[in-house]
Amino acid sequence: MNKLLSFIACVLIMLSSCSNIDENDRFIYVPPVAVGRCVLIEDFTGQTCLNCPRAAETIEKLQEQYGADTVIAVAIHSGPLALKPTASVIGLRTDLGDLYYGYWKVESQPSGLVNRKGGLTNDSQWASLVYNEIQQKATVDIKLAISNDTITHQSHVKATINNLGESFSGKLQLWLVEDDIKALQRMPDGKFNKEYIHNHVLRKAINGDWGEEIALGKDATADKEADFQLENGWKVKNMSIVAFVYNDNGVLQVTRKKLVNP
What we know:
Blueprint: H1 2-19, E1 39-45, H2 52-66, E2 71-77, H3 95-103, E3 111-114, H4 126-134, E4 140-149, E5 154-163, E6 168-178, E7 181-182, E8 185-186, E9 192-193, E10 197-198, E11 201-205, E12 212-216, E13 221-229, E14 239-247, E15 250-258
Parallel strand pairs: 1-2
Antiparallel strand pairs: 1-3, 4-5, 5-13, 6-11, 6-12, 6-14, 7-10, 8-9, 14-15
């Protein structure tokens, strides 16, 4: 009986100590949020960037939380830490990415833009920024319709933009991105992983480097259409179009659609 009482006393002491967790060490509860609009993360990254896989993991967690069609990411391989394609290396750096890299004055990677609000940020800030942005009411709606010619690899996209609020002017940007690309990546331990999978990689701009002008009155609708060609080596089943409307106030709305149904 004495052994039993001693055992019970020890258990009670252990349970009591478990509740004495410092308030700062407790998990922070983030209440569910009603999605008002989608959010665009422009992730400036590179294949020799040590910490860029960490930023990719941050995006993956946000997409698991909110959905990949709500938090829409584009990986912009650019700058000196990115690799250009060669005969022996699958490099993901593009001239378009370098153009954006220079325009936004990227000084370190990983860094990114969240709905183009507040300038460049690092991945540790993205969760709170997404949480705030996702609650804002959408003033624009974008729908995409895509057709493909499997023989010529020519594709056509029609974007229908509905203004849900007051009159505005800005630009519509159409980007082509690719998922599931196996290519070299330097990891946080300094080693290179040849089997690394890169997702939402920016391949090209469909309607100009900075998009095309759009202006809509209250409750108005407009259609924009464009043709584009896939390059050799791009896998159509992994390709998507990311479309967003932006102006000096940032990204008003963003959407994405796969070129072919899964």
